[in-house]
Amino acid sequence: MKKRIDSFKYAFRGIAEGFRGQVNIKIQLVAATLAISMAFFFELRTGKFCIILLCCGAVISLELMNTAIEKLCDMIEPNKNDKIKSIKDISAAAVLVASIISLIVGLMIFAPKVMQLIQS
Asked: Which of 16, 66, 72, 103 is disulfide-compatible with 91, CB 3.0–4.6 A?
């Protein structure tokens, strides 16, 4: 049981470490908070609400993974290295792709609701 509790403790410590000093992850958290708040405001049905939550979770998870990969790369090779740069760029690209897809999903879900609100 102690191992299970410790694993949660380590995971929460990892989340805190991921947020420490990382501007991008804080921006993603603000965007996720805004999207979830809008989901509550527009009283989205369960399915669409779950899609919003999954998009937010995917982007934040990938941002945490990107941070871990960057830290590992910096530890392995502190000097400038083209292969390490490529690894970091690909890792950042994964976050970018998830962010763009999440933005498109958010627009598809929220744009009609916002337009309806404006027209009323």
From this structure: 66
Q: Which of 64, 66, 44, 42 is nearest to 53 (CA)?
A: 44
Chain segment 46-68, per-residue pLDDT in tens: 999 999 999 999 999 999 999 99
Give the separation between CA 77 and CA 71, rounded to whole angstroms.
10
Length of the chain: 120
Following DSSP, what letter does each residue of the chain receive, concatenated?
-HHHHHHHHHHHHHHHHHHTT-HHHHHHHHHHHHHHHHHHHTT--HHHHHHHHHHHHHHHHHHHHHHHHHHHHHHH--S--HHHHHHHHHHHHHHHHHHHHHHHHHHHHHHHHHHHHHH-
Place of tokens 């908070």: 33
pTM (predicted TM-score)? 0.90
